[in-house]
Design brief:
The chain is α/β, with parallel strands linked by helices. The chain is built from 13 helices and 9 strands.
Length: 328
């Protein structure tokens, strides 16, 4: 019987996560689905752990040369037998009602995109992540303008996970391979293709955070920063072209991500001083618009003002904040 949903899970060196991730997927209050596990050239025991599940009729296990997350997701799309696709990361968990809730949203009509809510879960080094899930009861149909505004203010994340979309959307707009920030880069395109958007209000996806993942990498390449800027500009260009968001929302979005790009620049030895000055100059230009934005919080306005007038102090405060979280 043809599955209704293909669940695509990329794995790369996640041998310790395979069991809890797949067990959560296979414990669904939903019957008609398949699980496509893509081992992206792992060099640990990930593939052998995945093969323990290969006898399950729902599970398809494949292995490929390492090509990155986007490449693994794209391969999963080519193998998918269902007309609708959802992605799960190989170190996360989902609610028992994950698939049934997403599928309930499809009843709104053809080419619907359904977005679920996620919850961050702290996991210890030796304990498996767990969550007490509540069965979702509410799906809300929203306009494209509404969901894009939620993305601009980061009240919703552009994650490829915790959402359901027609397969042909990913056929038309595959994830860009070899690039970081691929989710931010493509989300506006997917929304523009969709006929309708549905939000699930209760959390259905568990984003697992380990303490070692909270600490940022000490090395940031110029390529990573370029990818980030390209993703931000692509999002803004797509949204502006559709006239789907007001200028103040897009300015807030740009300011938010420029603040993060600036902090990445400070951790890179490949970035010239003039490039950093260029980002701060743009932040200065955006600041008056953001300060007049009634939807921006007072805290956000204070944060961006500090960044504009004292960028080194801004960075120091964030370092202290991250150090505090690390030791909580």
């Amino acid at each position: 019987m043809k599955p209704l949903i293909s669940v695509i899970i990329p794995f790369y060196n996640l041998a310790n996560s395979v069991e809890y991730c797949l067990n959560s997927i296979l414990n669904q209050q939903f019957d008609c689905y398949e699980v496509i596990c893509v081992d992206d050239g792992s060099n640990d025991a990930t593939y052998s752990e995945l093969m323990k599940y290969a006898s399950n009729p729902r599970v398809i296990v494949t292995r490929k040369k390492n090509g990155g997350l986007s490449d693994a997701r794209n391969m999963g799309v080519t193998l998918a037998n269902a007309d609708y696709i959802t992605f799960v990361d190989g170190d996360d968990i989902v609610s028992p009602w994950y698939l049934s809730s997403l599928w309930a949203g499809v009843s709104e009509g053809k080419d619907t995109m359904v977005f679920g809510n996620l919850i961050r879960i702290m996991a210890g080094e030796r304990s498996e992540p767990a969550c007490e899930w509540v069965k979702p009861t509410e799906c809300i149909k929203v306009s494209k303008e509404k969901v894009l505004k939620l993305l601009c203010y980061e009240q919703m994340l552009p994650s490829a996970c915790a959402r359901l979309a027609p397969k042909h959307l990913y056929d038309c707009v595959p994830f860009p391979t070899g690039c970081k920030y691929e989710e931010l880069s493509t989300i506006a395109d997917y929304i523009s293709f969709a006929q309708s958007i549905v939000l699930i209000m209760e959390p259905i996806y568990g984003y697992v955070m380990r303490r070692d993942s909270i600490v940022h990498s000490l090395y940031v390449s110029h390529r990573q920063i370029d990818d980030y800027m390209i993703a931000v500009n692509r999002f803004m260009s797509t949204v502006s072209g559709q006239k789907a968001a007001d200028r103040s929302s897009l300015c807030y979005f740009e300011m938010l991500h420029l603040s993060r790009i600036f902090r990445l620049m400070l951790r890179s030895n490949e970035i010239a001083k003039w490039e950093k000055r260029g980002v701060i100059k743009k932040i200065h230009e955006l600041l008056p618009i953001v300060l007049q934005n009634k939807e921006a919080s007072v805290l956000a306005k204070a944060r961006f003002t500090l960044l504009a007038i004292a960028p080194n102090l801004y960075n120091l405060i964030f370092k202290l904040y991250e150090r505090k979280i690390k030791h909580v």
